[in-house]
Amino acid sequence: MFRNREDAALQLAESLKGRQFQRPLILAIPRGGVVIGAVLAQELGAELDVVLSRKLGAPEQPELAIGAICEDGKVYFNHYAEELLDLSDDYVMEESRHQLAEIERRKKLFREDRPPASITGRSVIVTDDGIATGSTMIAGLQTIKAQSPLEIVVAVPVNSPERIPEIRHWCDDLVYLEAPEGFWAIGQFYEDFSQIQDEEVVALLRQSATSIIDRGENGQHGSFRGNSRPAHV
Is 148 helix (H, G, I), strand (E, B) or coil? Predict the structure, then answer.
């Protein structure tokens, strides 16, 4: 059980400090993932940006993910979506348009006037406060992989054990702290799992960008090497 996202992120950072990264870039899934990502960026001396993917909700059941869409418009469908649900092309197109509009809003709000971080040739660490269905994570990973990173490491505090094989398929390494049987929701592993507001995400991204400028690196990190070994890999 983690006290909150900051506590989980600090523990996760310790599990990553034994690795060598080249110009490390943290890509966090908003909103909760940005709290995790900001701590990782600080602890690892990495650049922080967001990966903007959104869940596609099922008809009449918006909380049930049929898949996810990323900012480049690529859609990932959960393996059960078409088998268990009667999905029309019109519904999928309309839900995709709705989520792309929200992605565009978040892009303008979160990145402000900053361009997306360069991914090519870098060690990219993709994070969130946990993985349940894996839809938004996999949609993001598909987009990231297309931009030729040196490596992709998915790092999360808690992971659904059922999703581990599929997540591994889309990354070079998967690091997590907890993946217990009986997993049913990410929030069950946090004492405080309060909703994160847009304003907090904006503030964390600004603070991280300012920290990079203060270090005089402008996002061009060298290799990083820590002391300890990863947890679950």
Answer: coil
Contact call for residues 155 and 130 (beta carbons, < 8 A): no
What CATH number does the domain containing 69 carry?
3.40.50.2020
Q: Please report, for residues 42, 52, 72, 127, the alpha-carbon distance to residue 13 in angstroms, rounded to integers and kept in the order given.
A: 9, 22, 29, 11
* Separation CA 57–CA 80 (nearest Å): 13
231 domain-assigned = no
pLDDT tens track of the chain, all 233 residues? 999 999 999 999 999 998 999 999 999 999 999 999 999 999 999 999 999 999 999 888 888 889 999 999 999 998 777 666 678 889 999 999 999 999 999 999 999 989 999 999 999 999 999 999 999 999 999 999 999 999 999 999 999 999 999 999 999 999 999 999 989 999 999 999 999 999 999 999 999 998 876 665 444 444 544 433 335 55
**What sign has the CA pseudo-torsion 13, 65, 115, 149?**
positive
Q: Where are the alpha helices (DSSP H) in 146-214?
A: 164-169, 198-214
Instruction: Report yes or no on 188 lying in a domain.
Output: yes
